[in-house]
């Protein structure tokens, strides 16, 4: 018993020592000893006490990025971004449109225009790595439902980009050589748009000239060189296009009108050259072009670009007479993104471009973003073309296109500090195609509510477009009237 009491006493003594040490060690270097007044009936008496003085935390700057520095200076880093664009879409459908077998004149639908994850970084002074994973045009039809089959709603996401890049000169943008699956394209700035920063609700998709035909949502397996030398921003690309047989859609048939070739395989060559008169644009992420800097930079560019591919297109001049043609596309354009009043935060954004689009004789393809209709009645197919239901219009074709947009950024904190501002815009695509008898005009008017710049914004957009009717005895298409579409987008980006 005596031995047991000694052990208990020793344990209590050790525990007491530990508690005393813990209390003493809880006093940090910022703790100070200062006099404290104790009030008594006879007057104040000063007593010295140890008092914990915890300094008020300093306010920290809010961060808008998820970035891990690989060195102390931050010049080597790895970063992740996330983007979600949700659409609420009311559409007046083209005549004859059906939704899962039922005729519908209009639709109200909810969808995801884009959901993306980017991961990229400067691994060393000479090495840059870029990945993008995500999905597009995901609504209740899951991008592929029709009356003769179905699609799988669980296989929409895929790798958009997987690029490795070598920076030839340290800390210089003169020359960067890269390769992989990439959106580094020629033709125009909107052939490789940074969709998180666009001013309009959606990009002019016609500028992504071969989208989902011989590429993967505008990405191709490519080897490229790009960079900035003085005022010149350039990129030249050799691409290995995909055969149209792998795009997941029904194959086009040979006829008098041009289609993408079903035989043969040739490399595609592209280039884009921009002369930057004022500030230089960002050049870090391979290929992508900013939509608007919201007045943060003074940008005025002139650009010219091209895409060419030997024997990319084919048509029948006569039964059994197969004619292969080169695909030749080029454009010239100007781009302005400029602050007007820095104190107020106002700015302007404008783009005007001319596109020459030669896909071969009478080529024409309809397309519509996040199409809410699944099919169209056979009797309503203009010129026998498929894919003309819902909100589609002749987006791609042999001929020429003029595209323009204009937007005005209103004053900073229009609705009070931290409550954001507005940016209204207008947008127009005017085309003359060989296979369409009259000038095609698609017009948009919209309003951005920039809650937190591009990181959080609401966009309300109205689009007015033509629809086309069958023409008996000819492959030419004539406009039958016009339809409208009202879309509300909520974008969150970090």
From TrEMBL:
The keyword Signal applies. Residues 1-22 form the signal peptide. Keywords: Signal. This is Short chain amide porin.
């Amino acid at each position: 018993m005596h031995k047991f009491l000694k052990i208990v006493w020793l344990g209590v003594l050790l525990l007491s020592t530990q508690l005393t040490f813990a209390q003493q060690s809880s006093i940090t270097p910022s703790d100070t000893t200062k006099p404290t007044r104790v009030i008594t009936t006879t007057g104040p008496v000063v007593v010295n006490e140890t008092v914990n003085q915890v300094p008020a935390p300093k306010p920290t700057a809010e961060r808008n990025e998820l970035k891990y520095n690989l060195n102390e200076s931050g010049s080597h880093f790895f970063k992740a971004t996330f983007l979600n664009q949700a659409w609420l879409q009311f559409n007046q459908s083209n005549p004859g449109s059906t939704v899962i077998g039922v005729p519908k004149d209009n639709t109200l639908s909810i969808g995801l225009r884009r959901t993306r994850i980017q991961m990229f970084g400067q691994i060393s002074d000479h090495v840059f790595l870029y990945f993008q994973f995500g999905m597009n045009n995901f609504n209740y039809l899951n991008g592929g439902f029709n009356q003769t089959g179905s699609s799988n709603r669980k296989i929409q996401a895929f790798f958009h980009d997987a690029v490795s890049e070598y920076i030839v000169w340290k800390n210089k943008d003169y020359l960067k050589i890269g390769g992989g699956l990439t959106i580094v394209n020629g033709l125009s700035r909107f052939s490789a748009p940074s969709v998180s920063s666009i001013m309009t609700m959606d990009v002019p998709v016609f500028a992504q000239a071969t989208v989902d035909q011989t590429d993967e949502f505008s990405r191709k397996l490519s080897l490229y060189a790009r960079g900035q030398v003085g005022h010149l921003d350039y990129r030249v690309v050799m691409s290995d296009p995909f055969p149209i047989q792998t795009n997941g859609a029904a194959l086009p048939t040979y006829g008098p009108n041009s289609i993408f070739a079903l035989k043969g395989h040739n490399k595609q060559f592209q280039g884009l050259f921009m002369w930057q008169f004022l500030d230089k644009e960002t050049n870090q992420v391979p290929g992508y072009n900013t939509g608007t800097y919201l007045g943060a930079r003074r940008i005025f560019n002139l650009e010219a670009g091209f895409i060419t591919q030997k024997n990319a297109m084919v048509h029948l001049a006569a039964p059994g007479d197969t004619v292969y043609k080169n695909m030749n596309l080029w454009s010239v354009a100007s781009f302005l993104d400029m602050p007007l009043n820095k104190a107020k935060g106002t700015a302007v954004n404008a783009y005007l471009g001319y596109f020459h689009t030669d896909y071969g004789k009478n080529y024409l393809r309809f397309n519509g973003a996040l199409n809410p209709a699944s099919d169209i009645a056979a009797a309503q197919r203009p010129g026998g073309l498929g894919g003309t239901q819902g909100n589609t219009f002749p987006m791609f074709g042999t001929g020429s296109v003029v595209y323009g947009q204009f937007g005005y950024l209103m004053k900073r904190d229009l609705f009070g500090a931290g409550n954001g501002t507005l940016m209204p815009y207008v947008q127009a695509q005017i085309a003359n195609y060989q296979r369409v008898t009259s000038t095609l005009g698609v017009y948009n008017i919209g309003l951005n509510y920039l809650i937190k710049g591009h990181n959080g914004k609401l966009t309300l957009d109205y689009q007015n477009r033509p629809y086309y009717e069958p023409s008996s005895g000819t492959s030419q298409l004539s406009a039958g009237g016009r339809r409208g579409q009202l879309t509300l987008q909520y974008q969150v980006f970090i």
